[in-house]
Structures are given as structure tokens and as C-alpha cells.
Design goal:
heterodimer, A: about 775 residues, alpha+beta, Aldehyde Oxidoreductase, domain 4, Aldehyde Oxidoreductase, domain 3, seven-stranded mixed beta sheet, 18 helices, B: about 160 residues, Ubiquitin-like (UB roll), 2 domains, five-stranded mixed beta sheet
Chain lengths: ~775, ~160
């Protein structure tokens, strides 16, 4: 029996005061008082694609203060690293495939010397054509970017995924309506506030290395960099300090900085500091994959969706990185709807762009953008209410998804409640003020689903729990504190499970030497997977301690209750003994105080044709927005945004709302302003004054509704919450713009230029 | 090199710096005041905000040599873990902190705002904070924190 004393409460985060007073230390805050630290710089190419003809490092090496200059010939191990496959070179050897490929590295005694030295390296390049268009590169007759592409028989494809369900051709033949449109989404940066940074320190005792770098996965890092360091995975020790924002990006970008600091430290046997400038972060680190989506939807005249055919071309950039986007875009191409016939097909294609990596939502925002625009197109065509149309088609208990997974209410299925609560909201139903002919107002909604966890065979979580004889508890977890608030959520789960006050729980986190493989802090998985592993570990301790306590309490071990730092027999709360006394007794009775807690979701079960169960549970949601469009300037203002999201159980409603609001704001940025412009493999905008993200002036009052349909397999009923809130914003805004001006805009961001072009094109047509 | 003497968090200090050194580097690397963050180096993101004679300024585009004789306040100078400033406490109480990298700058911008305008409207708050980027929060709880701090300061607690 577990009482919920902390779970569900709005407890203040443990890290907030330290952050608000400047006392919290990030990776970049711990180097400058180290006298022995070397400072690193990388030389990046002035081309998106070029052959390296020669490199002359002699002048740089001769500069006072320079300790070493490295090129691809000087590496300690293989010239490759990466989260999934080691395909990204530590230092480019013969060719650069994008602007973020380092050509040479410098380590110097001072920052100034390192900065001067990279400017003294002479490189002769032969510029090559930079490939910007993934649709062009998909053609088998296009030039080859990677020699001997190991990933696919077509030389530029990184990954290809297909889902086939039912009989699509028959569904399209029998349809009353076919909606056929193209959609396009941009290349965007995560724009985390903390630039990428790493400190590496060679370990001469066992021939290993320690890396400090903000990231999502300290255990994955060992595997990702082992080849490059020429060391067994076991010798790589990785710590992630507080992370100054990640959103998926630092799952990979940490490797870009960590391998540089690492190989320099291995070479010099000195600690090395390496930090990217913001310019280098923009040009070099991973991005959200741009997508080009051809979406065809067949329905009958009542609005029932009969089938979909969807093709998605994804810009992979230069390297593989995290390549789940074809899988996710095929999975979510039909949104949260019950559709019997589907053919969804996606390709990720190499170009000379920054590599596409994980970014909040991992392909789901792109897929849902197309599908939810299609839903409004269908509603317009049939002259139906878009809300009724969605309610007619949503997944309900017993329905199967397009990938053939049955949906179960016991795993949490709150989409209908989300839709009803948004669309019945009084403010969302107030009359629109359209008195000014220049300012047109409209409303739109969008729905979505999003799986908890990676849905892959490796998904699982393992933690170390250790009781102390004073009644406090250590928990070793590999997860990172990215700002999402996992520390407080895990403390709430652990304190209630163990029946201790929350101050008794201390997390040893984000340190590969104090934790076990637990998967990355990604995929909206930590609360559920790591939370369940903590519950499992603590239950093991409780079972042991109950056996120790039973004779002390003169009761059977099945009657022992843990609550309020005490242990007592059921019903005899006032006669208990302190937990510390029981732990101390266990300590002196050959009862181990430590255990490993583990949890695996039900195994993902592929059945061919892309069908089979994927994630064990899904978050669902609906967002409504109101926009005002200035039809003379094309400027769109989001005036109201309301998100209802079913996340099973809010372990801490404050941090859950924080995730909702942050995701909604990022969606506004993606929908309206964020876009990197690439030409010949070079990025045209790489500062915060030409790559714009939302300021406080661009965001309305963000309204949120937490919906809780518990997941029977989640800790206290929880499902994942981190990524879902970004998914519905862009299509909801686009549908609201459609409602306001009667013009469909199928390419984001909907910048004033695109809005004016669409208005002009629409006027010419009519 | 030039010698610069100024007031830092209420105490007179002086240091020798290169003519091109910017204040954020001086604060972090010479005085180890690492609460001032460097997010962009181009004056766009606001993470490096400090108070210069009470005004919120970007220390990444301010030459250290230019603060001669002036008063600089960093996040460490306004409150501590034991005795946080009312604005810092409001950020905690309103759950306005996520990754925290923008938070010191947000706090200092808020202090400068409330000094001049003790009862700002939501729009005035958004305008004042519009030079400080946050990627985590959507600004929602930050606005609430500023309102909470303003209310507490007006009530004198």
C-alpha cells in the first residue's frame, strides 16, 4: 500500500533557488579557476561541401602557448563517432560534407592563443557543389554524397520506412472525397540557451577518460565515443552537469564537443576545455529535420476517413545522428485517428546540411502538421464542423492505429475529453472581433497523440537504490536534469514509494559512474521508465526491510507498512519504529541495503509491413488557438492558446504545466518565424538576430488543462509529457489562419512574406 | 592592457584587462562570478544581463574598460541561497525556472524594471523582458513571477 503524500503536489523544484541566485554550476562554470586546463578551438571550413587538398599547421604549432594541433592523421582511435553509428568524423580528412566538420583542432594554454592559432592554419580547399535539396538527392541518378553508403542500396538514403495496413487502393476507389496536398516544414535549431561545451580529462590510472558535458545520455555517450577514443566503452566516464536546455539537441551535439576535448586530452594528457560559440552552435549542431510531405486522404461523405497515402521526404543533413524520423513520420502520418487503410512511406536523405537529430517530438510535429491541416481541408470540403469531424474519427478503446496497435483505455485514452474541454472553453467560444477589415481573426484546433518511450527493443530503465542507516535513501540514475524537472518528480515518486519524507531522498544523477544504463533522457520516457525502475528498486528494499521489521513489530511481514519515515503494523500507526532503526538492524543482520531497480515496457512487437505494437502508452491532446492576421502586412498574432493534454497523472502539476507552456511556445516559433536558410550547403542566418525565436512579446497568455486518464503501467498512472505539447500548435495556428482569411497556407513558418504571397495567389485564383 | 576600477556588487575592485575584453568575460574569468551566463556573445539573448548603475545591460557587448568608475551588479550581488532577493524568491515560488540558463538575466531585468515601475502591466512586463530569451518556459510562469515579485515589493515584504 502506497499513500500519495507528495505525488500530485506542486512542490518547488530542488534546483530553482540555486539557478535563480546564480549558485548553480553548469559545465562552462567549472573550468576557469583550473590552472592546468587547456583551451581548445576547432577550425571549421568556409564551405558546405569541399575537398581538402592540403593542410599546413606549422605556423599554428609555432605560436607561443599552443600545446598541440591535430589533424585527421593524429587521432588516437577511429575517425568516427555517433549515437547510433560512428559515421561522423572527429576531424574531416579528405572532404567536408557540411560547415560543422572540423578540419583541424588546437589546444593551447590560453583562450587567446587557441583563437589565434586556428587562424594560422592554412587549408587549401577545392569547393564542391553543396547539395540542398533532399528530393533531388533521393533520385537514384543524383550524385553520391557518402561513398559506400552502408545504410541503404540507394546511395543517398539514410533510412526508409513503410507502413502498409488494409487495402489503400480500394479505399481510395470507394471514397467520396480525396484531399490531396503538399506540406513543407523548415530546418530549425533547438536554440537552447547554453552553448555546447565539454571538459575532458585523461585518466592515467586506468587509461580512461572523464568527460563533463551537458547532454541527454551519459551511458549512451560511452558507446558513441569509444571508437574515436580507441578505448573500451567501460573506460569512458561521463558526467552531465545541469543542462542549460536540450530539447533533444544535446543528445548528439554533446558528442561533437566531447570528442574534440577528448582526443586533445588523450593526446596532451592534460584536461581540455572546449566550448562552441553561438555561431558554431547554429552552423554545426543538429537540427529539426525539414520535411516535404505529400498527403492524400480518402473519406466518405459522412466524414469517416477511409484511408491515407502519405509520402514524406526528410532532409537528413550530412550524417545519420538519430534517424528515427522516417519511423515516426510513417507512424504519426494519420494522426490520432482510427483509419483502416494506410500506406505511409518516408525517406531520410543525405544533403550538405547540419545533421537532423532528435528535437522535441521527433518527427511527430511534421507528420501531425500535414494530417491536421488535411482534417481541416476535409471539414471545409464536406462543410462539416472540424470538431465534429475529429470526434467522428478519433481512436477509442479497442480501435487500432494505422500501425495496427490496439488502443486501451486502461493505458490512458483521454483524447475525447481533451477535445471537449478545449472546444467548450468559454473564452474559446467568445464572439470574434472582426470590426477592423484589416485585422482578420479566426480560430483553429489540432489534435495529436504521442508515444511514451522509444518503442524500440532496447527501451528499459535501471537504477541503483541504496538505503542509509540514518533512514535516508540514495538513488543512482543516469537521467539528466535538462530543466524539465526530473529531479523533483523522481523525489516525489521515491518518497511516496518508500514512505519517507522527501528530504530523505537524494539523487546521484547524470553520472555514468553512479548509475546504470537507463536509456537517454529523451522520448518523454524518464518519468515513466526511470520512475518505474525506482519504484521497483524501492519495493525490493521494502520487502527486505519488512522481513527485518516484522519481528520488531510482532507482526507478519505482509502487514508491515512504510510511511512518514516510520515502519508499523497495519492499523497501528502510533506504535511503529523509525525506518532508520529497521535499516540499521538490516545493516547488522547481513541484509543488503542496496538493490537494482529495473523496468521494461511490454516488448515492441514488429509484425512486418511496419505493423505491430510500438510504445506501450500514448499521450493525447487538443489545442485551440485564436489568431489575428493583418492582411496588409501578413503579420500573424497568436492571441489565445489553450492546450488540453492527457498525460495520465501529473506527478508535479507545476512542472507538467511548464512542459505544456514551453512546448506551446516552441510550436508558435516553428509555425511563425523559425527557419534556417541554406544555400550551396552554407547557412545564411546563424545569429539570434536573424534566426528568430519567440520573445515574451510573441507569446500570448498560455492556457493549459491537465487531463488525467491513468496508464495502468505507469508510476502512479503517469504517461510521458516532455514532447507532446509541441505537436499540435503549428497546425492549430495554420487552421486558425485559414479560418481568419480563408487562405490555406501549407508551408511553415507562416512568415509575413509567405502570408502575403498566399493571399495574393488566392486572390488571383478567385 | 588597461586598469579599470569600478564597484562590483557594492565593493570597489580593480583589474587589468585587454582593451577589447568584454565585461562578461571579466566577471566570469577574473572574478569567477559565473552566475552571469554567456549565451550568444552578440547581445541578443540576454543571458549575460547585469545591472550597470541600476540599468539592465548586456555584458557580452560591453567593454570592461567602459565600466570605469561605475557600479556593476551581478546576480550574486542581489541575493544568496540563504537570503534570496524577493525577485529570486518569486521566480522559485512561481515555478518560473526550468533549465535556468536565462534565469539570472531574467531576474536582473526584472529588478531593473520594478525599480522604475513598481506596478507594471502584463504588456509592460513582456516589453521589459523581450530582450531576454527563454526557450523552456514560454515566458508564462516568468510573467507570473514578475507579477508576484511586484506585489510582494509593493507590500514591502
Amino acid at each position: 500500500m502506497v499513500k500519495e503524500k507528495y505525488v500530485g503536489q506542486r512542490l518547488a523544484r530542488t534546483d530553482s533557488l540555486a539557478k535563480a541566485t546564480g549558485a548553480a554550476k553548469y559545465t562552462g562554470d567549472i573550468w576557469m579557476n583550473r590552472r592546468d586546463m587547456l583551451y581548445a578551438k576547432a577550425l571549421f571550413p568556409p564551405y558546405g561541401h569541399a575537398r581538402i587538398l592540403s593542410i599546413d599547421t606549422s605556423e599554428a604549432e609555432a605560436l607561443d602557448g599552443v600545446v598541440t594541433v591535430m589533424t585527421a592523421d593524429d587521432l588516437p582511435g577511429k575517425n568516427g563517432y555517433g549515437g547510433m553509428v560512428p559515421d561522423k568524423p572527429v576531424i574531416a580528412k579528405d572532404e567536408v560534407l557540411y560547415e560543422g566538420d572540423p578540419v583541424a583542432l588546437v589546444a593551447a594554454e590560453t583562450k587567446e592563443a587557441a583563437e589565434r592559432a586556428v587562424k594560422l592554419i592554412k587549408v587549401e580547399y577545392e569547393p564542391l557543389e553543396g547539395y540542398d535539396d533532399p528530393a533531388f538527392m533521393l533520385d537514384p541518378s543524383s550524385p553520391m554524397l557518402h561513398k559506400d553508403n552502408p545504410f541503404h542500396k540507394n546511395h543517398n538514403i539514410s533510412d526508409e520506412q513503410i507502413i502498409r495496413k488494409g487495402d489503400v487502393e480500394k479505399a481510395f476507389k470507394e471514397a467520396d472525397v480525396i484531399i490531396d496536398n503538399w506540406y513543407k516544414t523548415p530546418l530549425v535549431d533547438h536554440a537552447y540557451m547554453e552553448p555546447d561545451v565539454a571538459i575532458a580529462q585523461y585518466d592515467p590510472i586506468q587509461g580512461g577518460i572523464t568527460i563533463w558535458s551537458p547532454q541527454h545520455a551519459v551511458q549512451l555517450a560511452k558507446r558513441a565515443m569509444s571508437d574515436a577514443f580507441g578505448m573500451p566503452q567501460s573506460r569512458i566516464h561521463v558526467c552531465s552537469q545541469l543542462v542549460g536546455g536540450g530539447f533533444g539537441g544535446k543528445e548528439d551535439s554533446t558528442f561533437d564537443v566531447s570528442v574534440v576535448a577528448g582526443v586533445l586530452s588523450i593526446r596532451t594528457k592534460r584536461p581540455v576545455y572546449f566550448e562552441l560559440t553561438r555561431d558554431e552552435v547554429f552552423k554545426g549542431t543538429g537540427k529539426r529535420h525539414p520535411s516535404l510531405i505529400h498527403h492524400q486522404l480518402a473519406a466518405d461523405k459522412s466524414g469517416k476517413i477511409l484511408g491515407i497515402k502519405v509520402e514524406t521526404i526528410i532532409d537528413k543533413g550530412a550524417y545519420k545522428s538519430i534517424d528515427a524520423i522516417p519511423s515516426r513520420t510513417t507512424q504519426y502520418a494519420g494522426g490520432p485517428y482510427s483509419i483502416d487503410n494506410a500506406l505511409t512511406h518516408s525517406w531520410s536523405v543525405f544533403t550538405d546540411h547540419p545533421y537532423g537529430c532528435a528535437f522535441r517530438g521527433l518527427g511527430s510535429p511534421q507528420a501531425h502538421f500535414a494530417m491536421e491541416c488535411q482534417m481541416d481541408e476535409l471539414a471545409h470540403r464536406l462543410n462539416m464542423d472540424p470538431v465534429e469531424l475529429r470526434l467522428k474519427n478519433i481512436l477509442r478503446d479497442g480501435d487500432t492505429t494505422i500501425w495496427g496497435q490496439p488502443m486501451m483505455e486502461e493505458r490512458g485514452l483521454g483524447l475525447e475529453e481533451c477535445i471537449r474541454r478545449v472546444t467548450s472553453d468559454p473564452k474559446f467560444n467568445e464572439p470574434l472581433d472582426n470590426s477592423d477589415p484589416r485585422i482578420r481573426r479566426g480560430r483553429g484546433i489540432a489534435c495529436f497523440m504521442y508515444g511514451t518511450g522509444t518503442g524500440s527493443a532496447t527501451d528499459g530503465a535501471h537504477v541503483m537504490v541504496q538505503a542509509q542507516p540514518d533512514g535516508s535513501i540514495n538513488i543512482g540514475v543516469s537521467a539528466s536534469e535538462l530543466g524539465q524537472g526530473f529531479l523533483i518528480a523522481m523525489k516525489q515518486i521515491a518518497a511516496d514509494t518508500m514512505g519517507v519524507s522527501i528530504d530523505k531522498v537524494y539523487l546521484d544523477y547524470a553520472d555514468s559512474a553512479a548509475s546504470l544504463e537507463s536509456g537517454a533522457t529523451v522520448a518523454s520516457r524518464t518519468t515513466v521508465l526511470t520512475g518505474n525502475a525506482i519504484v521497483n528498486g524501492l519495493e525490493k528494499l521494502k520487502e527486505r526491510f519488512a522481513a527485518v521489521a516484522a519481528p520488531m513489530l510482532k507482526t507478519g511481514k505482509e502487514n508491515v507498512v512504510f510511511f512518514d519515515n516510520k515502519v508499523f503494523a497495519k492499523g497501528l500507526e502510533n506504535e511503529g519504529v523509525p525506518l532508520s532503526a529497521v535499516i540499521a538492524k538490516a545493516f547488522s543482520s547481513q541484509v543488503p541495503l542496496g538493490a537494482i531497480g529495473s523496468w521494461y515496457p511490454p516488448m515492441a512487437a514488429p509484425k512486418g509491413d511496419g505493423l505491430g505494437d510500438k510504445m506501450h502508452t500514448y499521450a493525447f491532446g487538443c489545442q485551440g488557438v485564436q489568431v489575428a492576421v493583418d492582411i496588409e502586412t501578413g503579420e500573424i498574432t497568436v492571441e489565445d492558446a489553450l492546450l488540453a493534454c492527457d498525460i495520465g497523472k501529473a506527478i508535479n502539476p507545476d512542472t507538467v504545466e511548464g512542459q505544456f507552456e514551453g512546448g506551446m511556445a516552441q510550436a508558435i516559433g516553428w509555425a511563425l518565424m523559425e527557419e534556417h536558410f541554406m544555400s550551396n550547403g552554407r547557412m545564411k542566418n546563424h545569429t539570434f538576430h536573424d534566426f528568430l525565436i519567440p520573445t515574451a512579446k510573441d507569446i500570448p497568455n498560455l492556457r493549459t488543462i491537465i487531463v488525467e486518464h491513468p496508464n495502468v503501467l505507469g508510476p502512479f498512472g503517469a504517461k510521458g509529457v516532455g514532447e507532446p505539447p509541441i505537436v499540435p500548435g503549428a497546425p492549430a495556428i495554420r487552421n486558425a489562419v485559414y479560418d481568419a482569411i480563408g487562405v490555406a497556407i501549407n508551408e511553415i513558418p507562416m512568415t509575413p512574406v509567405r502570408v502575403m504571397e498566399a493571399i495574393k495567389k488566392s486572390a488571383e485564383k478567385s | 592592457m588597461v586598469t579599470v576600477a569600478f564597484t562590483l556588487n557594492g565593493k570597489p575592485v580593480s583589474c587589468q584587462v585587454n582593451e577589447t575584453e568584454v565585461l562578461v568575460d571579466t566577471l566570469r574569468e577574473r572574478f569567477y562570478l559565473t552566475g552571469t551566463k554567456k549565451g550568444c556573445g552578440t547581445g541578443d539573448c540576454g543571458a549575460c544581463t547585469v545591472l550597470l548603475d541600476g540599468d539592465a545591460v548586456r555584458s557580452c557587448i560591453l567593454l570592461t574598460a567602459m565600466v570605469e568608475g561605475r557600479s556593476v551588479t551581478t546576480i550574486e550581488g542581489v541575493g544568496t541561497l540563504e537570503h534570496p532577493h524577493v525577485v529570486q524568491q518569486a521566480f522559485v515560488d512561481a515555478s518560473a525556472v526550468q533549465c535556468g540558463f536565462c534565469t539570472p538575466g531574467m531576474v536582473l531585468t526584472t529588478i531593473a524594471l520594478l525599480e522604475k515601475n513598481p506596478d507594471p502591466s502584463e504588456d509592460e512586463i513582456r516589453t521589459a523582458l523581450s530582450g531576454n530569451l527563454c526557450r523552456c518556459t514560454g515566458y508564462q510562469k516568468i510573467i507570473k513571477a514578475v507579477q508576484l515579485a511586484a506585489e510582494r515589493m509593493r507590500k514591502g515584504n
